[in-house]
Amino acid sequence: MAAEFINPPSLCPTFGWTHVVTATAGKAIHISGQVAVNERGEVVGRGDLKRQTEQAFENLRLALAAAAMSRRSIRRLARSSACRHSSARTG
Known about the structure:
Structural class: alpha+beta
Distance between the termini: 50 Å
Strand content: 5-15%
Strand order of the largest sheet: 1-2-3
Helix content: 10-25%
Number of strands: 3
């Protein structure tokens, strides 16, 4: 299965990760978590949750478009986290 790694110029620069990965076997794509950052890497809507959410979904739209797809193409959204945070206090 061949993979294509895409970092569209309409999304912020990446440092060791990729915004979109497509796989040619059935055209599965994986999009990294999108946040309220514009194409220049600047936070959008600081202190404004509505504006931040709008930017995150716009970034998702841009990532899908880079793979020639749209939100109608989405079959599954998954939440995953590489980090686990604990609220337990020590000591």
